[in-house]
Amino acid sequence: MIGGAVTHSLGKPWLLLAALVGLAATAAAAPSGGSAQAGTVAVLLKWLPLVFTGFLFNVLVGVLAMAFGTLAGLPLGLTQLASIRPVRATGWLVIQLLRNAPWLVLLFYVMFLLPFELHIGGWTIPLPAWVKAVLGLALPVSANVAEIVRGGLQSIPVLQWESAESLAFSRTQVLLMVILPQAFRRMLPPWMNLYAILAMATTLISVVGIQDGLAIVRSAVTAEGRPALMMPFYLLLLSLFFAYTYPIARLTGVLERRLHAG
Amino acid sequence: MGIESFFRWLADTQGINVSVVYDAYDRAHFLYGLWTTAWLSIVAGALSIVIGLIGTALLTAPVRPLRWASRAYVEAFRNTPPLVQLLFFYFAVGGLLPTVRDSYGASVPLVSNAGWAVVSFSLFAGAFNVEIFRSGLEAVPRATEEAAEALGYTRLQALRHVALPLALRVCLPALGNNLVNLVKTTSLAYAIAVPELLYASSEIWGESMNVRETMNAMLLAYILLIALLVWALHRFERALRIPGWSP
Description:
With 262 residues, chain A is mainly alpha-helical. Helix content of chain A is 74%, strand content 3%. Chain B has a domain at 39-94 and 110-195: MetI-like (MetI-like fold). Chain B is built from ten helices and two strands, in the order H-H-H-H-H-E-E-H-H-H-H-H. In chain B, a hairpin with a 5-residue loop joins strand 1 and strand 2 (107-109). In chain B, helix 4 (64-78) crosses helix 6 (113-139) and helix 7 (142-150) runs antiparallel to helix 8.
């Protein structure tokens, strides 16, 4: 899915968003029982600020997890080019393990097995649940980033290494000054694709009890106590995520095509 | 010393309580979870391929609304969180459907939670399959089909005997990748209490108070399941390989 996915262009992206919103509105306009109950649109509008705040929290968790995952994934991916075999083998094992485990399982791992605070020396570092959730999501991200880095670096012709080395660059210098700048362009689209996947995966944190957008939607539906509200509420959340992820997917597609053309 | 008694000894003397190995009840529970995960993956995987084929066919349909519908489906399901999709189907759509009486006379929903998991996962993976199949077909040069038609094949025959076999080989790696992702996605069914591997494991560690050990066993089971699938897909790819032709 990562890297290989070719993003399809939809003629009019706003049409689909409009359709989603329209569907929510239709569901909202459906008869909602007695006149004593507030209209569905009014209820949605009442909850919208809170749901949106929750959604922003999802975005924040996603950005942080992407940052940590990228920071960890870069060296992890570089191990695959190491000349020392045990380094290569260990890196490979870690990548395969983290890449092939379901994201939710890794999230459970971190949530359950990390303590609520860390004692390092005389310091006590508190680890609130949401920080653990960020770390839990960063684990699979790091392995996927590592694969992107490996793929990007290996896509640069060996000739580039050899010619740079013949100009008396050291191996590290070749990597940092010749290979990485070229590989970066190729790594960007799959990296953005991964971010889009992560942004959507942040809803998993509601499963382990963190108040994100999805958890707020579920609470709102429970608080209102009207099953007819479920459809508009879930469509609202789906639309929020769509409005955020779809432009990223489009941009990724554009960059990918430009890469293949140039 | 048998495996079972070794793990019982490990629990009694070392405090490492891998109950899914030596305890018959936990083991059955765990294996049932593993089986449910495998079952969900197989059924949703097969359905997602069917959905992918239908979606691809619609993308090339001569009727414009059909093409739009297929594209809208692909974009909607690829760009929204699968977990929210699952809850949307289970709570919002499931809530609208009538209930039926089961054999005990109790009223049960028309579609069970496992049923909704299958529906949701196959639609999610199917959206990716549409893209995969479409790009596979596009990778087959037009000239190949024209050559087949020049040899007297009808368009349908050319598609069936020439273009599709080649397209299948092109999209097999991406399809395999998507199926592996599907297996991982089945763990989301935990959220609607489908007794798959993650849910079963969480019940086991709740009852036997051995979070660490059961989690490790679960991770191992997932990795083995996915390794098996990757191996099988690789074999299949190799078996279909046409010597001298690489996509």
